[in-house]
Amino acid sequence: MVRHERVILLLIAVAVSLPAVMKTRQGAPCVPVTGLSVPPSPAGFVRVEGDVLHPGMYPLSANIMTDTVIKMAEPLHSLKKLPPATVMTQQIKNGDGVRVTVMPNGQVDVVVAPIPASERMIMGIPLNINMMSAADFDRLPGIGPVIAGRIVEYRQNNGGNMTLEGLHNVEGIGAKRYELIKKYF
What we know:
By secondary structure, the protein is α+β, with helices and mostly antiparallel strands. Among the domains are: about 45-115, Outer membrane lipoprotein wza fold like (Roll), CATH 3.10.560; about 125-185, DNA polymerase, domain 1, CATH 1.10.150.280. Helix content is about 35%, strand content about 15%. The chain is built from seven helices and four strands. It has helices at about 5-25, 65-75, 85-90, 115-125, 135-140, 145-155, 175-180; strands at about 45-50, 55-60, 95-100, 110-115. It has a four-stranded mixed sheet with strand order 2-1-3-4, with helices on one face. The chain is flat and about 105 Å long. It starts with a helix and ends with a helix. About 20% of the residues are buried.
């Protein structure tokens, strides 16, 4: 046999046996390769409402200012007579609400205030125990109107400020009830 005939026979043998070898071999797990990274979780949420094209909840990134939030929601009218720079450059916090009102004369009114406790609970935004009303406390699981009133009364009797741990001192809040509501703060 000539040398080139041997090479051809060897190639045919490899070609015939290769599929059988490949079927028995387990492949390595396929890991998809991506050039995209996972975006970081938002630092919280801000609600924008009023004279804007897109009212709603927006993810909050670090160090975002009032003017940036308003631009994201796209004002319905051009903002000609803006409020003082201190309002427009106010740093927005998790759970803030921004209301934009454009008056007929072009004057812009911007109000920044915390959103209600009920909305904060839905969005998973921590509650501020010192800014809640009895009605807000009443919305917490296991807290009815009587205990809600006691919490507000305790807070008022202690200078208007209390810590989460101060709830232990309110009549009707035991260890179980405390554990049930502390996740909201």
